[in-house]
Every structure is written in structure tokens, then in C-alpha cells.
């Protein structure tokens, strides 16, 4: 087995590469560049090396979750079994984002070439939610109300979503998939430095809530230190009730009662009926094609797939490979395309169970061509000169990331969240898990930005039972009907552009998956009108962009993308994101 808790370690590899090696030796002799038909099976000479394996691969943001999921694969489980097992384990080992109190999206693409499917287990607004619930009497948005109060929580979807995924595509029972998570919660696990740091940083916000203080901190209020064992007995009991009673063990009975009591004590809205009626939805993923690769990504209520495909469609008309990775020209075109897409997002995107979204128009090649014409080669268009475009007609309503590939070629791409780190910060008393603050992803008021600076309008206003708009973009790329790339990321509004860049790094710039994951990223979301970059974009590139009228700002790292690529010979390459110290890709 090939294990690499620190995926950027250069020498971590590698069985199953002899074919690639021969091609490389030949190429070196002939002194010509080597470009495999698809997939980067050739690794020598690359700065960063992916983990490689032949049968199964898991990439998650926490080593313990990767390990338990890999064990499922080794014991004959499939990608869905492993993904759900990882999802429950992350709910224990990574409480800042892993969850049972939140929601997300899972994309499943079988190895038999059948149409990929998406499971939408996004949270829903409680039935008592209203359009103006986050505004005061004068109509001003009361910001904290949608972020740090019991009104911030949507009805959680994770447990129902995972159960549906297992039902449709798994071979394990819910009880089997929960077993490692229950063990990790009951027996505890050794906390990494990142765990301690996260809880220290969020201490003030989290310790306002006695149940959070009791669940996640030591008796004296300090955070568990790296190397110490951290146990969650209440969470273990909550997970055990799901194992014993299935979905009803969460949405009804004792856990539901604890959630509702928590709401009633603090003016929250979630009722027994909201919980009992929660249903995940099977949706058709958004589908696009970029330079011969089939892109499948998340459909509404996420905006992710729509805008990844839209941006790729626009960029397809520019010679990106020739212009070069992170050159001023490439970044300019990317930023201009991103602006146009995020402007459309603000206008058109919302839950398709409630509003019409012109999905086909937004993802069509002719619309992209029209938008492309508005992009100038040497001048940035100011954001205030851009308004949402006019995609062709409305059609009838349709509808911490981890990636897994199994030995049958099945792939699962899953992104789920409680929104902020530790969500609302509110732990359900007696149940040991944190509640999301996903309601902040609705437009509290048209034109007023959410925590990620994203604005929205009517299409994303709060309505009872509606799902709030998301940017989560679990994505699977196929080539010739075979799963080729499985990827996705956290990062709020940056999820779309992070995922986009890994696709481009592989398809346009021919990078292996670890290099594609590690490469410095840029982001533009229309408003604020600035290109945000990670460290690693040169000063002269920045100057060239500034000379075209761009404002460029360097910020902290963006996203934590966990990816798997399938080489042409079937070799699996895992690329975990070094931006999270606990990320890991492992295969067998
Ligand atoms: O659904 C969304 O788009 C956001 N709630 C995701 C939040 C997120 O990625 C936070 N992580 N960095």
C-alpha cells in the first residue's frame, strides 16, 4: 500500500508505472516532450508527485477518514461505501466542517459508463422561515442573525443524503458505514495540531454556547492539545442511534427531540415536522464539454457546476495552453470570464424547486461565445460596467470535499459543509454535534452580500422549505465514457474557481494531479472588483495585470481540493491538497 499523509513529499510512489517509464526513457533519448493521450501518467521531472495505486484511491482532508475509507475498499466495498464511511468519520475527526448537522452534494459516476447521478442533501429552510427574517424593522440586514444564532441553521441533510447514497449505490448497511465513526467518537482519536489551532482561533465564538464548550474543550476551557486523545461520547450515542434505527434515528426520536428542544430554548425554527419531512433529492448533474473532456458537476441548488461549465465554455475560445499557466494573459482571460459568470450567478441562480434557472442557456456554447466577444484582450472591464447577461430562455424546472475511486472504476465526488468553520458554533445539547449556519447562503436582502461577498436577488431569497444557493462543486470529468478526474473543494465563493483551475491545470497545462492541486490559484467573483491571488504569482505578472486595469490582491490560501486522476492504463493518482496539513490521499 502506498500511503502519503504529506502528499507533496517528492519521493512518495509508485507501483504500476513501468509503461510510463519506458515512454519517458524513449522521449528523453529523442529529446521531445511527452504528452500522453490523456492523463498524466508520466511523473518524472515533475515538482510534485501524486500517490499512485492500482485498485482503489481515497483523498480526504483528514488522514483518519482516508484510512477508514481505504479499508472499506480493501475489504471489497465500493466507492459509495467508502465515501459514506469517510463522510461519517469526518463528522467525528474534523468537526469544523465534517458533519451530521449540515448538508452537501454527492456525485456518483459508475465505472460502467452509465449517466452520472447527483445526490442533493443540501439543508432546507425551516417551514417557519420568511423572506425578511434577517432584517430589522427598518429593513436593514442584521448580519449575525443568519450566522451565529439558532435562526442560522437549516434543516440538516447529511444523514438522509448518505443513507440514500448507500441505498442506491452502496453494498454496506448504514450500521456498517457508521462503525468506524462510532469507534472514533467513543474511543477518541489523537488530535493533530490543526485541530487544536482551529478550536483556539474560534474559542470566543464557540464558548458562548455551554454545550459547545463542554463538547469540544477541556474542563478548564482550553483546547485539546496536539497529541492528546479527544473523545465525543454524546456524538457516539447520536451516531449509534442512526446505526440502530436508520434515518429515523436522526430525524425522529431522541435526536430529533434534542434538536427541537435546542431550537425552542433559543428561538430557533426547526420543528419535528421539518426534520421528519426532510428528503434528499436525486438530480441530474450539469454536463459540459471542454476541449473533448466531459465535465459533470453539481446542478442547482448549487451554482458550482453551472458556472464551472460556463467559464470553461468562455475560455475554450482562447489558446490557454499556448498563453501558459498563470501568465498575465491567461489570468486576464480567466478573471474576465469569472466576472461574467459571477454576475450571472447573482441574478439567476437559486433552488430550481422554487425558481426557474436558465440552466441550458447559461451553460450553452453560443451564450459563452456571446460573452467572450465582450472580453477585451488588453483591458479589464470594470465590474460596475458588467451586469448579468441575457442567457437564452428559461426551461422547465429540473433540477470538506472527498474523492473516491474503486477497483471497478466507480467514482464518488462529495462536498459537504456546515458553512463556516464550526458552522453556527452551536452544539445540540446532549447530542454532541454542531449545527450549520447555512441560512447565510440565502440572500438576506437583494443585493446585500453574504459572508463570502456573494450577492443574490429574488432567485435566492429565503422561502420556507427552500434550499439556499451553494457554490459547492463536486466534479467528475470523463474521457471517452471513462472516469478520468474526480475533484472538488471547500472555500465558499472560491470553490468554483478552485475546482475550475484544477481542471484547467490538467486539461490545458498538462500537469499531473498533484502539481495541478498545488499550483498557485487566482480568483475573481465580479464583486469585489479584484483578482485575488495566492502567493506565487510573480510581481511582473501582477504589474502586467495592473497595467490592463486589474486590481490584484494577495490573500491567504484558497480551497483544499482533494482529487483523483485515472491514468490511461488504469493507474490511480491521488492528489491531496497540502493547503490543509491533515489532507491525505491513499491507495492500494
Ligand atoms: O454552500 C456553500 O457554497 C458554502 N456554504 C460553502 C462554505 C465553505 O466552503 C466554507 N469553507 N471553506
Provide an overview of this structure.
- The chain has helices spanning 18-30, 63-74, 79-93, 158-169, 174-187, 193-201, 203-206, 210-216, 233-245, 248-251, 253-265, 272-277, 304-315, 320-323, 328-348, 359-362, 365-373, 494-507, 513-518, 539-547; strands at residues 2-4, 51-53, 57-60, 103-109, 117-120, 189-190, 229-230, 281-283, 286-290, 293-297, 402-405, 411-417, 475-479, 482-487, 522-523, 531-533, 552-554, 563-566, 572-575, 584-587.
- The protein is an alpha+beta fold and 588 residues long.
- It has a single domain, classed as Glutamine Phosphoribosylpyrophosphate, subunit 1, domain 1 (4-Layer Sandwich).
- An eight-stranded antiparallel β-sheet has the order 1-20-3-11-12-4-5-8, with helices on one face.
- The termini are close together.
- It binds 6-diazenyl-5-OXO-L-norleucine.
- 6-diazenyl-5-OXO-L-norleucine (DON) binds at residues 417, 419, 438, 441, 470-472, 490-492, 495.
- This is Glutathione hydrolase proenzyme.
Amino acid at each position: 500500500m502506498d500511503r502519503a499523509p504529506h502528499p507533496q513529499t517528492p519521493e512518495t510512489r509508485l507501483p504500476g508505472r513501468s509503461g510510463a517509464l519506458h515512454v519517458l526513457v524513449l522521449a528523453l533519448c529523442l529529446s521531445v516532450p511527452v504528452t500522453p493521450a490523456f492523463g498524466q501518467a508520466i511523473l518524472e521531472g515533475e515538482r510534485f508527485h501524486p500517490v499512485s495505486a492500482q485498485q482503489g484511491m481515497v483523498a480526504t482532508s483528514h488522514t483518519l477518514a482516508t484510512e477508514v475509507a481505504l479499508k472499506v475498499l480493501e475489504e471489497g466495498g465500493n466507492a459509495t461505501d467508502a465515501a459514506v464511511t469517510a463522510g461519517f468519520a469526518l463528522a467525528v475527526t474534523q468537526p469544523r466542517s465534517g458533519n451530521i448537522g449540515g448538508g452537501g452534494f454527492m456525485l456518483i459516476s459508475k465505472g460502467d459508463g452509465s449517466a452520472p447521478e447527483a445526490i442533493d442533501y443540501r439543508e432546507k429552510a425551516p417551514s417557519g422561515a420568511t423572506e425578511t427574517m434577517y432584517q430589522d424593522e427598518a429593513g436593514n440586514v442584521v448580519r449575525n442573525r443568519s450566522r451565529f444564532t439558532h435562526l442560522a441553521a437549516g434543516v440538516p441533510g447529511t444523514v438522509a443524503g448518505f443513507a440514500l447514497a448507500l441505498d442506491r449505490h452502496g453494498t454496506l448497511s448504514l450500521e456498517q458505514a457508521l462503525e468506524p465513526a462510532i469507534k472514533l467518537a467513543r474511543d477518541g482519536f489523537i488530535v493533530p495540531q490543526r485541530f487544536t489551532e482551529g478550536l483556539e482561533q474560534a474559542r470566543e465564538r464557540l464558548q458562548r454556547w455551554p454545550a459547545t464548550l463542554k463538547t469540544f474543550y477541556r474542563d478548564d476551557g482550553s483546547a485539546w492539545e496536539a497529541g492528546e486523545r479527544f473523545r465525543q461520547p454524546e456524538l457516539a450515542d447520536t451516531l449509534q442511534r442512526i446505526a440502530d434505527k436508520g434515518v429515523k434515528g436522526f430525524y425522529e426520536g431522541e435526536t430529533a427531540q434534542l434538536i427541537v428542544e435546542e431550537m425552542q430554548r433559543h428561538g430557533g425554527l426547526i420543528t419535528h415536522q421539518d426534520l421528519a419531512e426532510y428528503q434528499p433529492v436525486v438530480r441530474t448533474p450539469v454536463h459540459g464539454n471542454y476541449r473533448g473532456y466531459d465535465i459533470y458537476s453539481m446542478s442547482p441548488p448549487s451554482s458550482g457546476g453551472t458556472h464551472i461549465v460556463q467559464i470553461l465554455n468562455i475560455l475554450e475560445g482562447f489558446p490557454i495552453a499556448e498563453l501558459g499557466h498563470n501568465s498575465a494573459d491567461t489570468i486576464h482571460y480567466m478573471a474576465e470570464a469569472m466576472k461574467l459568470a459571477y454576475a450571472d450567478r447573482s441574478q439567476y441562480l437559486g433552488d430550481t424547486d422554487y425558481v426557474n434557472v436558465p440552466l441550458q442557456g447559461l451553460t450553452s456554447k453560443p451564450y459563452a461565445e456571446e460573452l467572450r466577444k465582450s472580453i477585451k484582450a488588453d483591458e479589464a472591464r470594470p465590474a460596475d460596467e458588467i451586469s448579468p447577461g441575457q442567457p437564452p430562455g428559461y426551461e422547465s424546472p429540473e433540477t470538506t470535499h472527498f474523492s473516491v475511486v474503486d477497483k471497478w472504476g466507480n467514482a464518488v465526488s462529495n462536498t459537504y459543509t456546515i458553512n463556516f468553520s464550526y458552522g453556527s458554533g452551536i452544539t445540540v445539547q446532549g447530542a454532541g454535534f454542531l449545527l450549520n449556519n447555512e441560512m447565510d447562503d440565502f440572500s438576506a436582502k437583494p443585493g446585500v452580500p453574504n459572508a463570502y461577498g456573494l450577492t443574490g436577488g429574488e432567485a435566492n431569497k429565503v422561502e420556507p422549505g427552500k434550499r439556499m444557493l451553494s457554490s459547492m462543486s463536486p466534479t467528475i470529468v470523463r474521457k471517452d465514457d471513462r472516469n478520468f478526474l474526480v475533484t472538488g473543494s471547500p472555500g465558499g465563493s472560491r470553490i468554483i474557481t478552485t475546482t475550475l483551475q484544477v481542471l484547467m491545470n490538467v486539461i490545458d497545462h498538462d500537469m499531473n494531479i498533484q502539481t495541478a492541486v498545488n499550483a498557485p490559484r487566482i480568483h475573481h467573483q465580479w464583486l469585489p472588483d479584484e483578482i485575488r491571488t495566492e502567493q506565487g504569482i510573480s510581481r511582473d505578472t501582477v504589474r502586467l495585470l495592473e497595467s490592463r486595469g486589474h486590481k490584484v490582491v494577495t490573500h491567504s490560501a484558497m480551497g483544499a481540493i482533494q482529487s483523483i486522476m485515472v491514468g490511461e492504463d488504469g493507474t490511480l493518482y491521488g492528489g491531496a491538497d497540502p493547503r490543509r496539513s491533515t489532507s491525505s490521499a491513499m491507495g492500494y
